């Protein structure tokens, strides 16, 4: 760090306070004026200062407004991790519009549904996804402006469009409960739901950013996970809240990741267990200098004790496990570094997801008897915090099912709390599968498979998978007189769904087990695959 940069940081620490930030737009306003020359973003060889990010955000905001985007309108992005994500996010925030990041792993029909459901006025698409754009563009119902990063014969290049927009912060007011982000989760009933996260939801994470993850204005924060996930975009925004530098990984490569930590002197990162496992397998990891790392947060799926102990020994920094959901704006329960110590007398706590974070209340609820569970008794994990979403976009019935009148969000995870206040995940109340950190709802997959003429009935369940934690298995009743193979069913699903949602195996059955009301007994189907395991999630 140069003397000038050190002086800027000292002055900044004395004069700037995150208390001045009351919305997502205020993040770029505060740091764009408070530390204009400090590096905001690094993507490959390209770097942007906070002043440049603020200027680009103003141009984007004014361009969106000229295209008819008004307060609380949605703007969508379909692209891998990159600088445009943040330009769109902050540009939208300056006019109090809402960012919608679309999972680029989705199939064209899924992308089309989300863009239309969000009623997105603008759609920005990365060059790699032009084929999806071409397939869905004629069917977009609300989109008035389409831009392509890198250009397209029919649509203007994103960077060219940004450069020709006018400067000046429009400063459209943004209230605490105005929606800032809309992230889509797979649907329990077959259709994705737009999770509405407000300015206040995100700012409620402030104490965790400072007290737990210890991110400071001089941190070098790694944004390696997909930004369309709360674990990717939320983690990146946590660093930006503090005004630090964010290093973007466009597409995660574990070998390149190992090198980047050393080269860029990364101080903070959030990774999923599968990535940590890959890092431990890379021979070069043993010779790399990871001394810059201060905090490694991980989550999105359970981690094995073997991978965890090897990662702690390799990286030699503070480890925090984070448990949360899109609906809770990310982490609400955290396992602290002292419980990761290899010689800890409380090694059993590695099986837990930790203790509630600042401002987070947890209760374990017995839904069958409408009562709170005793210590050690398994029930559904309910969460109350300022991080809880506003609700599901245009799904009031689903919102009412998820959040009760007193503000308790029903997680869908079954677990218990021990005498020391540590939360343990035991199973899922819902049928959700977590494969490689991605949520998969069987109902969505089943709805697609039932349209296959060779399938008379089907149930999708999660089974253990060594690499991805869990994977989807389709239990299929064949239609009479139709010959269908496992490969045909898997390929059929891949044409209509994101690959991570598709079954990797098919099991044939004569009739699905059902209870008297007709509900498939999925626990019976899952039992042979999970027998002998302490918990029924992987």
From TrEMBL:
Domain AMP-dependent synthetase/ligase stretches: 31-393
Entry's Gene Ontology molecular function annotations: CoA-ligase activity
The family this protein is said to belong to: Belongs to the ATP-dependent AMP-binding enzyme family.
Record-given protein name: Unannotated protein
Record Pfam families: AMP-binding, AMP-binding_C
InterPro entries, A to Z: AMP-bd_C (IPR025110), AMP-bd_C_sf (IPR045851), AMP-dep_synth/lig_dom (IPR000873), ANL_N_sf (IPR042099)
Origin species: freshwater metagenome
Domain AMP-binding enzyme C-terminal positions: 444-519
Family matches, as PANTHER family: LONG-CHAIN-FATTY-ACID--COA LIGASE, MALONATE--COA LIGASE ACSF3, MITOCHONDRIAL
Keyword line: Ligase
Lineage of origin: unclassified sequences, metagenomes, ecological metagenomes
